[in-house]
Amino acid sequence: MALTKQRKQLLLLAALVALAAAVWYANFDRAKGAPGEVAFRADSYTPINAQDFSIIFKQRGDAQKTVYKPSGRNPFVASALPVVASATAAPKRAEKTFLDYTVRPEVIVPPQLPWKFFGYGNLPSNGGREAFLLEGEDVHIVGEGEVVLNHIRIVHIGNEKIEYEDTNTGARNSNQLEAVPGPTA
Question: Which of 62, 102, 126, 174 could anchor a disulfide with 163, C-beta 3.0 to 4.6 Å?
């Protein structure tokens, strides 16, 4: 006689329930204080040596109440604050040390686009203007707002010149429209 799948599962369930009941019955009548249980004795209790945290909380509260007061110095500028000379102070003799240095204003060099601007065109779909730039024999087609050479952004493409800026310094420059020599016959 073949047992169906459902009948096999019921027999397995009944066997597992019987096994669980046997384990529970074997552990139910164990004596108190058996190994593995922790007994508490009042005479062996010693309180822990806890620190008084009220002092620490007071110090933290005082630190949280501090207010930042700027000195007026810009930490991003390499020059010192201007010194206000008082009328009573005697002028000091200027001595140069090896630590003296002068801060020169940074000279911003306008960017140079090494490619020749030889033409432009309009896209019919969105009306955007694109410039044709020549690098040797390679032609690059760029639109306004695109970045070329990883740091030069095309700002404006006009009829006679292309304007661009360096994204690192913000300096601007432009190139005039140049005629490209045609093929010789």
Answer: 174
Closest CA to 156 of 128, 115, 127: 128
Quote the CA–CA distance of 54 and 141 in Å, as a whole number. 71
The predicted-structure confidence for 42-87, as pLDDT tens digits, reads as follows 677 777 777 788 888 888 988 888 888 777 777 787 776 666 655 5
8 A C-beta contact, residue 132 and residue 119: yes
**Of the candidates 184, 159, 161, the residue with the CA atom closest to the CA atom of residue 174:** 161
What are the boundaries of each domain within the chain?
Answer: 116-176
DSSP letters spanning 40-94:
--GGG--------THHHHHHHHHHHT------S--TT-SSPPPP---SSSPPPPP
Q: Which residues of the chain have pLDDT under 70?
A: 1, 29-42, 80-104, 180-185
**For 148, which DSSP code?**
E
Measure CA 172 to chain center. Answer: 29
User: Order of strands, edge to edge, in the sheet holding 161-166?
Assistant: 147-148, 152-157, 161-166, 172-176
Q: Which residue has the tokens 């009220």?
A: 54
Q: Which residues contact 76 (CB under 8 A, 6 or more apart)?
A: none
